[in-house]
Structure formats: C-alpha cells, structure tokens
Amino acid sequence: MNTTTAAAAKYLQIGAMLATVLGLAMAITAMANSMPSVWIIPKFGPFKAEFLRGGMLSAAVTVVLLARGFTRLAIEKEDAAWRRWLFVDAAILAGIYYVSWQFSFVTIEIQDSLFFFEESHAWITLLGIGLLIILCWRVWGAPLAVFGLVLVGYYFFGQYMPSIFKVIPMSFVDNFSEDIWFNLNKGVLGQVFEIVVFTVFPFIIFGAMLEATGVGGSLIRFAFIVTRNTRGGPAHAAVLASSLFGTMSGVPVANVVGTGVMTIPLIKKRGFTPTFAGAIEATASTGGQIMPPIMGAAALIMADIIQVSYLVIITAALIPALLYYLSLFFTVTFESRRLDIDTSTGAGDLAFDKHDIVNLVILAGAITVIISTLLFGLSAAAAGVFVVLYLVPASFFSTAIRRNPAKILQGFAKGGIQFSELLMAIGVVGIVLSVLNSTGLPLRLANSVEVLMEHSLFIALVVAGVTAIIFGMGMPTLPAYLTIILILGPTMLNLGLDILVAHMFVFYFGVSSSITPPVAIAAYAGASIAGSGPMRTGFMAIRIGAAIILVPFIFAYNPELLLVEEAGGFETFSLISILARTVVAIWLMTSAFSRYDATQLSILEMAIRFALVVVVLMPDPAIHWAGFAAGLALIGYNNLVVGRRQAVDTG
C-alpha cells in the first residue's frame, strides 16, 4: 500500500469513527429533547428551539460530510488528488456553522427586541440554502435539489411569470431573510424541521436498534415458516416479511436491501423470474411506509400537521394497508399458478430457532409499548422515546446483544447517521415550503385548478395523484407528500374531502412513486439484487402494486375504510359492503394484470375483469351489487368449472 492509499484509508477510518461518535451524541440529545413529563423519568427537554435547530443542523452536516462527504467520494473514485476536496468539505462545514449560529443569534434578537434585517442577512440566507441544496444533491440525488433550486428562482423571478404564477416583487433585503431563513414558524428550520427532530428521530433510533438485535432476520425466517406450504413460498414470505419489516423501516430502498438479499434469491430458486422476484420485493418493501404501527416519517409528520393523535393515523391506515398487501398475495398466487409452481418446488426454508422467538417477543413488546403510550394519550414523540427506553434493557434478551452489548450504542449511532442524511432532504423541503408559503402560490393554484376541474372531485384526485407521483420521482416520500398537500390540499378540501382523507390520499401517491417508472428507486434496488433489467422491473412493480393507486381512490369515496371519526366514521353495513366489494375488485384487477386466475385468461376475459373493477366500485348500489354478483360468478366459474375441467384433462 503506497503512502497516498494509506492516508486515504486512514481518513476513511477516522471519518467513520467520528461520524459514529457524533451520530451517537445526536441520538442521545434527541432522546433527551423529546423526553415527556413523566414522574418516573426525569425530563431534560425540550431545549431552546433557536439553539436546538441550529445545533442539530450543524451536527447533521458534520456527520454527512464525514460519512458521505466530497472527500470520501473522491477517495471511493480513486482520485489521487482527493486531498483537494478536504478544503471543499471544510468550507461547507464552516459555512453551515456560520449560518446556523446566525440563525440562533438573530431569531433570539427578533424575539427580544425590535430587529431590522440588513443586506448581510439576505446573503447569509442565500449561503445557507445554497449549501443545503448542494448537500441534498450529494445525499439524495438531483431531483429534490433541483426542485429546491427552481423554487428559489421562482421566489425572485415569479414577478415576471404569467397568469396565476405571477407574484408580487420580493425584496432581497427586506423579505428574503425573514421569509426563508430567520423564521421559527415557516422557514427552512421551521416547524417541519422541529417535528422531525422531536418525533421522527426517536423512531429512527428505534428502527436502527431493532436492526442491531437481529429482529429483521427473525422476521424473514418467521415469514418463511408461515408461508412455506403456499404455492408462492418465498414470494409470499417476501410480502409478509416486508410488511412486518415496515415496523422497523419506513424507507423503501432500505427495506428492499434489508429483506431482499435473503428473499430474492430464494424467490428465483422457487421458479419465479428474476424480474418478478425483484418487483415483488420492491412492491412489498414500498408498502412498509403505509403499514402500521410505525409507517414512515411522512405519517408521523401528518399527525402533527392535521393536529390529531398518531393513533388516529395508524388506525386509519390499517385497512388500506392490509388491502394493498392482500393484492400482493393474490398476485403471487396467480403467478405461481401460471408458472405451475407447487409447494415442493425449491423449498428454500430457513431455520427458525428459539433466538428468533425471543426476537419476535421483543418486537411484540415494542409494538405494545407504542400502542399503550398512544392509548394513554401521550404524543407520538413520547411513544418513540418510551419504545427506545424499553428496547435498551429488552434487547439484552437477544443473543446478538448479549454477545456484543456495544451493538446498542452502534444502533444509536446508526440512527444518528440516518437522521443526519434525512435532514439534508428536510432542509430542502423547508426551502420549498417557505417559498410556497411566501408567494401564496398554493392558494392561487387551488382556486384555478378548482375552476378548471369544474368542481369534479375525481379529476382533482387524478391531478393530485399524478402530481404526487411526478414530484416523488427520486425524492423521499416526505417532500413529495408535503409539497402536494400544500399545493392541492385546499382544492381537495373545497371539493368535500375530510382533511385526514385528503392527506392520506396524497401520502399514498407519494409512497407509490418508489415503484413508478421512470424513477422507481425501490424497483431498481430490487433489480440490482435480482439481476434483472431495472426499467422492466419497474414496470413489473407498478403492475404488481397497482392496488397502491386503486386503494386511495376507494377510501376517498368510501372514507369509512379509514374507520376513524376524523374521516367521518363508519356504519357497520357500509364498511362490510365496501370491504367485500374491494376484495372482489382487487381479485379481478390482479388476476387481469397477471392474465391468469385458475387458468389462462384471454384478452376478452381480461377486459371484462378490468371493466368489472370499475362497476363493483361505483357508488350506486344497483350498479355495484350487480357488478359484485357478476364478478363473483366470473371468479367462481374460472376456479370451479374451468379449473376443474383443466385438472381432469391434465390428469
């Protein structure tokens, strides 16, 4: 090893160690900050917002530069001049420290005395948002960063735009600083930033600690035991494991990697194609964001935005999530029938022992803590803190932790690193939201869109869904959800949707962007493991996961599926009615997409099934019950008559 290579390796080692230590410190600080007022546990937070937000941003950027900075990137690309990038990382870090300190200092001054912004504050704002866009680009790629850059341009040049996009002139000196940076409410480091620190961070720590205990592997092995006698075998196990893994991770790509490395090879061994193996894992993993009780960052923030208990959110999400996963189970069944896979093909069972049982008991206890805390009336942040406090002693029942107790600290540190990366996206989300709030664009768009749609709820839902998918391409779900609900939310509310229904609708479409080509990041992750074509896997994934687009339309028109009073409540008969019809509709849709039920379906049979999906879900009882009966008859005929006839012929 030459001197340059040795120095680079040393830098990577030291950088990783420092990132781990700082990530651990951030995690401990976040736990102390979110600590609820309970007589058993001393309360340390919340810390003063002005210092907490600036300090967390500075610490997060430090971690990101150590773990994924430009110097590290140059070393990974084997750039012999990697030392030059040290100055770039150092300059970014110094800039972030400066703008964070100015944020804390100025916001305190604003509250304590009469304050007048000067031109220097505008340049500080420009520096801050510029650095956040660069860091977001580095961590999350171009789409979100470019969108943030476009919105900054719109803030200054919107006055020259036509029609509804035209805004009043914005002053660089008088408006820019106060609107974008030095604002504790709607600025870049505003309320959304604080919600992420208070509420999301403890759950990120929880997920990282569960991973450290080996619960993820136990979930996969449990799923294989449950599904080993089904036709789909590993494919059904992937669906079940990924839905359970959603308790730990609300990030689709992380879910694909966490479960897919074990499930995808076994799915292929069972006889499924590599494309199907990658796609079914991607669709199942994407659903982790909509599966209670943890879901993802967007669901946690949704509760704060619409001012309801997080228990309301997870209750509302339960039936739609189960319907989505039911559609995946149906698809696997039809595909295994089409390929003539039986339970003896490629068994691929994984050993399940007493250590796995212990891990699942630990997980069950964690879920119980979360639900109990919410039922007791405490916040989602309190639930996150309590479940982590539970997990620290409970994890010692895990063999992995007893062998290496340091994994607990490593779990905290990993949570800090994951949170730091998330904050780079949240920073740009803050830029987008502050510009939209300052310019008033969402309200003007809502009014114009409402006129163009001629008060049609269906068209409004289609526009909101398509826009959410477009905005979500390559972005985390959170920015896609926040941006679209801010822009089109008022229109959806004006057309009669309850606020929770509108937010859940947009949330679902933000999630679906992970499997929607051309930027289907979860599908591409699955394709890389399966060895299949990325684009082909993406199209297969959206075909398999089509229910993630159908289900939100169903609960938009039938909010009783969400169960809660905030969505209008439900009557038992209405709930049973829409559940029965939805199950039949999903069977018809998934079999039509698979072009197989008990037997091969013709083009005409596929078309009839797609048409019946629409009929079964129509609001008019005379129409939907007729469609329901026709659908049941079609399914019954195919499975009982044609399927039996084929079995006799082959026998």
Write a short abstract of this structure.
The protein is an all-alpha fold and 651 residues long. It contains 28 helices and no strands.
Protein topology:
Blueprint: H1 3-34, H2 49-68, H3 70-76, H4 84-112, H5 119-140, H6 142-157, H7 176-181, H8 191-213, H9 215-227, H10 234-245, H11 252-270, H12 274-286, H13 297-305, H14 310-338, H15 354-375, H16 380-394, H17 399-403, H18 406-439, H19 441-452, H20 457-472, H21 477-494, H22 499-512, H23 521-530, H24 534-544, H25 547-557, H26 572-594, H27 603-616, H28 621-650
Overall description:
Helices cover 75% and strands 0% of the residues. It is an all-alpha fold and 651 residues long. Among the domains are: 3-194, no CATH class; 580-651, no CATH class. The longest helix has 34 residues, at 406-439. It starts with a helix and ends with a helix. The relative contact order is 0.10. The mean pLDDT is 82.
Features:
mainly alpha; 28 helices
